[in-house]
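STRUCTURE:
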């Protein structure tokens, strides 16, 4: 589903997480199966120069493991972490092309709304679609 260029970008972020332990921009969380094989992962982090805003950079599930709830579990993990860190919102960006229709539907089904769409952002006919989900601040105990 991903282009080689997209895979390269994703791998760069994984390399940053693995090789630069002191960095705080990107976090990776993996999903494993019963044999401890990686079946998916999510990459997210706080958005620089903001207060309580987080970006979800990548959410990936192995094709043979899709439609089993793994993506939802990964998304819920990120939402839990953002909530725990008193995050206010999560931003997700994706493409408008047809192959990403299931991805956009996934975000909508999980409570995200389209905040903006930038026409021809990636290339002519391929818009950037920006999703957002807001979180209510936790009550102090």
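SEQUENCE:
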């Amino acid at each position: 589903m991903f282009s080689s260029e997209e895979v390269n970008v994703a791998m760069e972020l994984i390399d940053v997480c693995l090789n630069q332990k002191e960095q705080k921009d990107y976090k990776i969380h993996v999903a494993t199966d019963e044999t401890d094989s990686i079946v998916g992962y999510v990459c997210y982090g706080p958005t620089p120069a903001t207060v309580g805003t987080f970006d979800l950079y990548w959410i990936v599930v192995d094709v043979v493991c899709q439609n089993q709830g793994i993506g939802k579990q990964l998304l819920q993990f990120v939402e839990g972490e953002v909530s725990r860190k008193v995050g206010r919102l999560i931003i997700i960006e994706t493409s408008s092309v047809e192959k990403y229709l299931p991805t956009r539907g996934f975000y909508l089904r999980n409570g995200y709304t389209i905040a903006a769409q930038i026409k021809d952002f990636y290339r002519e006919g391929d818009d950037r679609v920006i999703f957002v989900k807001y979180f209510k601040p936790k009550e102090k105990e």
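REMARK: The chain has three helices and six strands.
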